[in-house]
Amino acid sequence: MNEEQIIASTFDGVMDVYERRYKEGKLIQEEEENLLYKRFPCAVSRSRSGARYGNQPVKQGQAAALNYETKVFASPKLSIPAGCSLVVTQYGKTVRYVTCGEPVRYPTHQEILVVREDYA
């Protein structure tokens, strides 16, 4: 087993990768998502959270913003453009992320910085 295979053996989730594209409408430009990869192995690691990074307590009646950053680890063979959406399923939970810039590539894996912007 080589080093890339060893790292890939730690991937405990799968992701669908969607690229945003614009199609020309008659009067307005419409956005659509194109599926690039389906159920590709990955791993997710939260890199920042808590009040220090923008997760503030909320008052009663307000929606809690879940705004933290994570890294998604995947094979270096994938080509994931900036601005893609990743739908990751890990441990029975599915979460949608948006990529932030280009992935950092290594010979054995790539790290994709993503942001989850949902409400609790």
Largest sheet: 6 strands, antiparallel, barrel
The amount of beta strand, in percent, is: over 45%
Q: Strand tally, please?
A: 7
* CATH fold-level name: Thrombin, subunit H
Architecture (CATH level 2) name: Beta Barrel
Share in helix: under 10%
What's the number of helices?
A: 1
Can you tell me the number of structural domains? 1
CATH superfamily: Bacteriophage SPP1 head-tail adaptor protein
Radius of gyration: 16 Å
Question: What structural class do helix, strand and pairing data support?
Answer: mainly beta
Distance between the termini: 42 Å
Q: What's the level 1 CATH class? A: Mainly Beta
**Strand order across the largest sheet:** 1-2-3-7-5-4
Low-confidence sequence ranges:
none
What integer is the average pLDDT? 83
String of helices and strands: HEEEEEEE
- Based on CA inertia axes, which overall geometry fits? globular
Written account of the structure:
It is a single chain. The protein is mostly beta strands. It has a single domain (3-119), classed as Bacteriophage SPP1 head-tail adaptor protein (Thrombin, subunit H, Beta Barrel), CATH 2.40.10. The chain is 5% helix and 54% strand. The protein contains one helix and seven strands; from the N terminus they run αβββββββ. It has one helix spanning 3-8, and strands at 13-24, 29-46, 65-74, 85-90, 93-99, 104-105, 110-119. It has a six-stranded antiparallel barrel with strand order 1-2-3-7-5-4. The protein is globular. The mean pLDDT is 83.
